[in-house]
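thought: fold this chain, then report.
action: predict
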Amino acid sequence: MTPSEALKAARQEAGYTQEQLAAKVYVTRQAVSRWENGDSEPSIDMRKLLASVLGIPVVDLLGLPDEPACQCCGTPFSVPNMPYGTNADGSENRDYCAWCYKDGEFTSPGLDDLIERNVPYLMEATGYTQEEAVSFMGAVMPTLKRWKDTTNENASANAKRSVFYACPDCGNIVWSMGEAVVGCCGNALDPLPVYQNEGNLEAAISTIDGRQHVSIPHPMTKEDHLAFIAAVGDDLVRIKRLYPEQDATADFPLQGPCTIYAYGAKCGLVRL
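observation:
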């Protein structure tokens, strides 16, 4: 089944009209019609949002080839000169390719290393931008054998384990997936604790032209200002740096379900 056919079938199964689905993902009915007819294709991030709305695996909308592939990096074994991996005794392992699995051991310690290594090849093969390639691999990798049961153990596979740090001297902002040893200006930085928004920030979050718009009324003075607004999803984090005397606003491309945070030295890190 092609991605366009899968989209149409999932929409009908969910009981939505094209117009209703369009309203849920903030596009026009004509856009949904073009996707279902195969006249155009949604972006990778839009496919994630569609899959979330329709309650289906995002891989159903990615058009992956129905053929054996490495269960670590996802590369099809039909690629010319694609060697199989090897077990510790030298025998062939047909689950993994030789670039990922050699002599009974994986060549990449974690998902972030693997994505960093493979993104340039995916960009060359598909014409994706770097952001699209990272988003695509972030959707596909957790479905593969090596990562399927370990994504929650690997900080790189779950951006929702994001941790933020702020230097009290220079105001530098540091972000990591999972806790890390972080220092700045001679200070050892502790992870910023997250506070629930109990009315201390009156944020307005809306969707405009396929983008998530965040607006926070704030004095934004040199003495009291927000330093950043961040959108954290399953496999993607976007951060908008803010400075005194500018509006406390941010626009993020739709990336599926995400959590919005804002940070200021006085209010701390607040989940909106």
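thought: worth noting. Confidence is low (pLDDT under 50) at residues 151-157.
final: tokens above.
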